[in-house]
Amino acid sequence: MENLRMVFSFTHALLGSRDSFSMKRIQIVSIAAALLLGCFSFSIHAQASQCAKTVYLTFDTGNMSVANQVAEILKRQEVKATFFLSNEKTFRGDYALEDSWKPFWQALAKEGHHFGSHTYDHTYFVKDGPKGEVFEKPQFGPKASTTVMYNEAAMCKEIRRVDQRFQELTNQHLQKIWRAPGGKTSPTLIRMGDMCGYQHIGWAPAGFLGDELNSDKYPNQMLLEKASKGTQDGDITMAHLGIWSRKDPWAPAVLEQLIVNLKQRGFCFGLLPKNSENQSK
After folding, report:
1. Is 203:181 a contact under the CB 8 Å cutoff?
2. Three-state SS at 89
3. 3-class state of residue 198 by DSSP
4. What whole-number distance in Å separates Cα of residue 260 and Cα of residue 235?
5. Where are the alpha helices (DSSP H) in 94-151?
6. Which residue, among 196, 166, 199, 200, has the nearest Cα to 183 in the 3D structure?
């Protein structure tokens, strides 16, 4: 933009002066305009070449132990991501959708990230019911660890509770997307979400970033190399904002270098759902 202003100021000054060298002035202005158009075309081409491929970073809540580090890396790298929220117990002993986490979610929302439901009580699909219902097992909440049958209305309520709570925390709604805990679904469960107005979002096989795996068998360097090489155009990745079981945390050790490596491969970072505007560079 500064170059544009300089060129316009220069050409305005030339046209504004009145002397005997008017033809020379016109020639100089023409050259300046041509250079300006050339620079603009080059800029557009450079941006297009930088965004030849798109990857979609997503994070589920987990125990939130690396939530702040993830947010800092995304901000530093100027990358947007999509977060799937559930009221999971955190490393601090509170829960991810309590008021104690309000500043965190507000900051992410202000920065332009996207958000979806991960079910309020982190409710795992067990099996289909006999008459179009589903059996689910909440991990948290009053029915934790109990297998419960959900009809369409009950499942819709479980998905929407996150949206309602997120609005209370940030004064904005989720995107109309959700993710079943563990990625465990059935056609019946997907249909329930669709009928409720929420599109289910899974992840690509190569997009499983491995932060749940044993860190002795799957060290961070191995996970970094696998994701850096294996990620393909259009892939949705999945990691967490903290995992109880992994001794050597995946983030921040892997995340920032992975973003750098993918940028070097020509990737841009998009938001979900895939038709979203304001995609990252």
Report:
1. no
2. strand
3. coil
4. 17
5. 102-110
6. 200
Give the integer Cα–Cα distance in Å for 187 and 216: 36
What is the identity of the amino acid at 133?
Answer: E
Q: Which residue in this structure is represented by tokens 């500064």?
A: 2
Pairing of strands 148-150, 134-138: antiparallel
- Residue-wise burial string across 72-98, b where 16 or more C-beta atoms lie within 10 A, e elsewhere: ebbeeeebbbbbbbbbbbbeeeebbbe
Q: For helices 152-170 and 187-195, what crossing angle results, to 10°?
A: 50
CB atoms inside a 10 Å sphere around CB 178:
25
CB atoms within 10 A of CB 9: 10
Token digits of residue 59: 């994070």
Per-residue pLDDT of the chain (281 residues; tens, 9 = 90+): 444 444 334 334 433 444 444 444 434 334 344 433 344 333 333 333 467 899 999 999 999 999 999 999 999 999 999 999 999 999 999 999 999 999 999 999 999 999 999 999 999 999 999 999 999 999 999 999 999 999 999 999 999 999 999 999 999 999 999 999 999 999 999 999 999 999 999 999 989 999 999 999 999 999 999 999 999 999 999 999 999 989 998 999 999 999 999 999 999 999 999 876 555 55
- Write the CA distances from 229 to 209, 251, 262, integer angstroms: 12, 18, 9
- The predicted pLDDT at position 51 comes to 77
Helix (H) / strand (E) element for 70: namely helix 67-77
Work out whether the CA dihedral 215, 87, 196, 110 comes out positive or negative. Answer: negative
Cα–Cα distance measured from residue 217 to residue 213, given in angstroms and rounded to the nearest whole number: 8
